[in-house]
Amino acid sequence: MPTPSNDLQTTTSFELVLPPDPELLRVVRLMASGLASYTDLGFDAVEAVRVAADELVSTLIQAGNGDDVAVRYAITEGSLVISADATLADADGFSLDPLTDRILDEVASSHSFTIDGGRISGRIGVDLPAGT
Amino acid sequence: MTQPGDGLSIEIDDTEAGHVIKVGGELDLASAPELSKALTEPAGQSTLPVVLDLSGVSFIDSSALRALLLAGRQLADAGRKLQIGPRSDVVSRVLEVTQLDQQTEAFQVLPDPA
User: What is the nearest CA distance from A14 to chain B, expressed in angstroms?
Assistant: First the structure.
């Protein structure tokens, strides 16, 4: 039987593909805080990851055309990264909400949204304490 | 009290101080419409303020903030004021981060007694 381990120094990642149902944001947040709790982030920082994941996926749900949203969670060297993408409803109509931008500025170390070929992709990064 | 899903609870109490709406649970894209409905359908023709008690809110995101801003403007158009009263640390932090605790005319953030 495998032994559970908190050793996430090597890259760990998983993907969640979900219908764009706002009720499922709770699952998105749960996955984010669950993964973050395996790092050396403190309580407030884990809460910040939860907020960042929610803002990222909420943005894509609202900008998307109703197709599934793919969310990827990864711990790489020194950072926790959550990225997501969806098909845009209106390729010319997307602009990041200023409130979302302000919140992500505060809770994430980095964030970006890009539009390419009718797809919207978003990415947030959270720096991890040394040794994580 | 309404409980759409497991994420939100809303209690409404008309007092001499105003139309008090006590919200508990998580405020996000899923629950923001229910919050909007509660805020913009206050009973009666009172001009007393609508006072939000957010002390039981465990999560709030920009979707809920947008709902608060919109409701506040609608209430102002109807001659009523939206006030944010008691609130959890989570709510206080998001209001501070977005500077809505000092920069909006849509609602008034009351001093937190906590």
Answer: 24
pLDDT digits (tens, 9 = 90+) for A4-36: 445 555 578 999 999 999 999 999 999 999 999
CATH number at residue B39: 3.30.750.24
**Model ipTM?**
0.88
* Nearest C-alpha neighbor of B97 from the set A112, A124, A48: A48
Mean pLDDT of chain A: 91
Phi, psi (rounded to 5 degrees) for A22: -55, -25
Range(s) of the domain holding residue B86: 8-57+68-109
Out of B7, B26, B97, the one facing A103 most closely (by C-beta) is B97
Tally of domains within chain B: 1
HSE (CB half, 13 Å, CA atoms) of A10? Answer: 1
Count of CB pairs separated by less than 8 Å, A with B: 49
User: Does residue B98 belong to the interface with chain A, where contact is any CB pair within 8 Å?
Assistant: yes
- The string of pLDDT tens digits covering residues B52-65 is 999 999 999 999 99
Judging by DSSP bridges, how do beta strands B82-87 and B108-109 pair with one another? parallel
Tell me if the domain spanning A22-127 has CATH number 3.30.565.10: yes
Among A83, A54, A55, A67, residue whose Cα is nearest residue A18: A67
A118 exposure class (CB count in 10 Å sphere: 0-12, 13-18, 19+): exposed
